[in-house]
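Appendix B, example 12.
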Amino acid sequence: MRIAVLTPGTGSFHCGTCLRDQALAKELRRLGHDVLFVPLYLPPTLDTADENTSAVYMGGINVYLQHAVPVFRKTPRWIDKLFDSPKALASAAKRAGMTQAKDLGPMTLTMLKGEDGYQVKELDRLAAWLRDDVRPDVVLLSNILLVGIARRIREITNAAVWCTLHGEDTFLDALPDTHRERCWQEVVNRSKHVDGFIAVSRTYGDIMIRRAALDPTRVHVVHNGVDVQTYKPGSKSQGNVIGYLARQCYGKGLHLLVDAFIACKKSVPDARLVIVGTKTAADEGYVSVIKIRLSDAGCLDSVSFHDNVSLEEKIRLLQQMDVLSVPALYGESFGLYVIEALACGVPVIAPKHGAFPELAGETGGIALFDQNVNGDYERVLLDVLGDKGNDLAESGRAAVLAKFSTQSMAAGVVAAFASQVKKAV
């Protein structure tokens, strides 16, 4: 098959979606498929270089200008091209982390309208390029926020259009009241033009079947996977290291982990906290408050921060951890960091909501805590730092090898594509 994977780039920081999509593209190629990684809006920030990556389409500057300034909806390509230059997009990327859902209601709505929206010029250019230069059998949209472009691409390329489901409800629910329901309704309407959906967990698939009114027969569950040759256990230099691997922001609950760590220090004085993950300009204030909290508790010297790390550094830090925890405040659709940690032989502690109970059952490597029970988080942290952690680590690593590798993920996606073709026949 010839497959085009369309993924929004962040421009300046890692995100789990880009990493997952790149890993999937590489593994599909190993299976013999012709796969092109197509970044949208901004250049992607990836762990490793990928020569099968196209130029950026639907460039972020043009998308914004065509939304905000009517004259740019009719400008010739030579003008638009100036704003799609690598230099211009690199400059725009510096502000990418400042974007919040509360500010994006109108633009989200017009993007979901696709050929009826203000960015139809960009959409038609993308669709024509896919038809003439790529000629895909399948176009895979990275998330349902891209569903507005499905009908036009399907019409022009005659390719099957698929869409991954992983966490979009959080963004849609954070839109302002004036646009939230209208955007959800566009998702419902536009999803009818998608041939099939890949849900990264059964939990999240069920959520989107209900909220986006999806046909359950077109939703296929394929868990995320990691490269088990890259993510593997290492030798730990010392014990009682609690780790965090996610964006350093409020929604991921870093402040909850910091409070639990401070409480645990009373029982485990030599405990250390290693914080790893994306930090954008928008996160600076939040992280500064956390550092003040740690300093006031006399624990700052026991904590290290590692921002926007490379793949090699991320794995090295994971291998040093005795437990990893990201106490997200919302229901995660999956949480790629869970299997990244388990693949490295690191047990995971997670809140008892979202996809975590499902993953706990599938892996045997996750200890769950109840965010509504005072002190439960600290209790579970101490249990896992003790003897319980060894059994979780062993079970979790074995489960990743058996069910959560990139090979398993790619095979599941191909099987989903094939099943929908059989139904059509």
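The mean pLDDT is 91. Residues 234 and 316 are 8 Å apart (CA to CA).
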